[in-house]
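STRUCTURE:
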């Protein structure tokens, strides 16, 4: 039996709200909780502050698309290559914010501010969710916070990441309004629609959590299966507004896209282990192990409590994750995106109760603070290093005339995990100098841009940027790819290459540490 602990011990503001030796779920230090949320959320902005450019894999492609979106057809050059038509899609969160802020502060600063704000928003959402679910912020919740810098976020799935951050806030509000069902239903008609508009997955995660928490509450209150199901259906039915409006507003003539494809089951374990994959993969995998170990310690300690609705949501999402395919409606890595969300929900569903050993709680708190600090430091360092690499690489395009055809090639790894994130860096060339970007992707189910530069096919769209030094499976080697570039292309940009590399018919124009811009020799032009 644990020795008695003097009341008021561990009153180190604002962390006193995490370990209360008197137990109980009622908040005794609301000012400390507010300070804790503000403090930790603000710290999550540090990686974006220290990075000259946010070096996320898909973000360059998004920046290029935003440039076309903001241009609105004014540039004659861009009109030749791309068109953009607004429509109603469940994938417009950052797009709409960019449309609002970019005319005021510029495109790249707006993107930096919006995307850099996602981790602080995610952190505050997780802390508020812990508070709403358990009546106070639990020590265990801190172990979920490093997941704000998840693999999907670092991959540049920005609409998805924003929608999950907002979903955490929405779930917290849904739980907080449990005893005000009419107000909750009315509020979540517009909230549910906005979540759907931001990204479909954020809406789906919130809707699942709303249904599971409502079912768990009905079960807890012994309302019976039929009444509980009926009540839950009535409360969650308004959340279908977004999908219904989307179906009614669907534009005719869309390109057909396979609904489901490529169920790669073995990789699902990898996505869970590498939920925070950044630069140092052993440390990143260890991070997931630390989260799992902290959860195990909590569950092994007498006095833990569980929020049944969140736990049911985590299990339901895990089941969905195990059976869902890799690609949904043309969008790849659909399952990978959910790995960190599942881990976060399992952690947030558990907290210490009144009988929880305060010594274990203190140990968990110290461990969480060390873990969060270490992850924040390494994420900040990694993002700053990659951001400087991006900035240095982008100096190459300054040598290319504005508004010309440019084919960009990124040399990928045939096997193994590649931590370099410059696969879509060429999108910055489109945004800054109106250079053609063959890394843009056209996805009728999720994008509003259209590509119509067929004279450069197959170098007119993603994945034509990806190549390999040597042949890889069905993909030809780099020299063969360069030889196949249409004659009308005057400039070539190769990334992750030896700066001394030469190609017949091409002359180096500008070199960086590991990229080269080439100009086609006049004798090679038609």
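SEQUENCE:
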């Amino acid at each position: 039996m644990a020795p008695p602990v003097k009341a008021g011990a561990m009153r180190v503001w604002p962390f006193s709200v995490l370990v209360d030796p008197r137990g109980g779920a009622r908040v005794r230090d609301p000012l400390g909780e507010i300070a804790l949320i503000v403090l930790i959320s603000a710290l999550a902005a540090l990686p974006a502050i220290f990075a000259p450019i946010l070096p996320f894999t898909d973000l360059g492609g998004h920046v290029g698309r935003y440039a076309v979106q903001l241009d609105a057809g004014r540039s004659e050059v861009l009109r030749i290559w791309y068109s953009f038509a607004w429509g109603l899609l469940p994938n417009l969160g950052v797009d709409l914010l960019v449309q609002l802020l970019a005319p005021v502060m510029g495109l790249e600063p707006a993107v930096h501010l919006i995307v850099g704000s996602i981790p602080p928003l995610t952190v505050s959402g997780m802390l508020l969710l812990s508070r709403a679910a358990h009546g106070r912020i639990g020590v265990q919740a801190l172990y979920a916070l490093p997941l704000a810098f998840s693999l999907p976020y670092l991959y540049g799935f920005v609409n998805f990441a924003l929608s999950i951050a907002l979903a955490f806030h929405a779930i917290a509000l849904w739980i907080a309004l449990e005893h005000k069902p009419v107000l909750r239903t009315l509020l979540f008609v517009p909230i549910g629609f906005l979540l759907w508009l931001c990204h479909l997955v954020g809406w789906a995660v919130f809707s699942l959590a709303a249904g599971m928490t409502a079912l768990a509450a009905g079960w807890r209150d012994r309302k019976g299966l039929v009444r509980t199901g009926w009540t839950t259906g009535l409360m969650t039915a308004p959340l279908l507004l977004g999908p219904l409006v989307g179906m009614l507003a669907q534009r005719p003539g869309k390109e057909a896209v396979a609904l489901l494809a490529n169920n790669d089951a073995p990789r699902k374990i990898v996505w869970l282990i590498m939920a925070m994959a950044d630069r140092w993969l052993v440390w990143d995998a260890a991070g997931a192990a630390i989260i799992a170990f902290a959860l195990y310690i909590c569950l092994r300690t007498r006095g833990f409590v569980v929020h049944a609705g969140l736990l049911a949501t985590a299990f339901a999402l895990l089941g969905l994750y195990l059976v869902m395919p890799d690609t949904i409606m043309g969008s790849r890595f659909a399952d990978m995106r959910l790995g960190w969300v599942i881990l976060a929900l399992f952690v947030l569903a558990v907290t210490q109760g009144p009988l929880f050993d305060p010594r274990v709680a203190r140990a968990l708190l110290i461990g969480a603070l060390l873990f969060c600090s270490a992850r924040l430091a390494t994420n900040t360092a990694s993002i700053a290093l990659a951001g400087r690499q991006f900035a240095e690489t982008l100096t190459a395009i300054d040598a290319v005339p504005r508004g010309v055809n440019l084919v960009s090639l990124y040399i990928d790894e045939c096997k193994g995990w590649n931590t370099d994130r410059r696969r879509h860096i060429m999108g910055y060339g489109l945004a800054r100098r109106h250079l053609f970007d063959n890394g843009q992707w056209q996805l009728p189910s999720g994008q509003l841009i259209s590509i119509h530069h067929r004279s450069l096919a197959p170098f007119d769209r993603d994945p034509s940027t990806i190549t390999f030094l040597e042949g890889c499976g069905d993909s030809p080697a780099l020299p063969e790819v360069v030889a196949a570039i249409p004659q009308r292309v005057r400039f070539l940009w190769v990334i992750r290459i030896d700066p001394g590399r030469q190609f017949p018919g091409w002359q180096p124009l500008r070199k960086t540490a590991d990229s080269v811009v080439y100009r086609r020799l006049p004798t090679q032009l038609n």
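REMARK: The longest helix spans residues 358-394.
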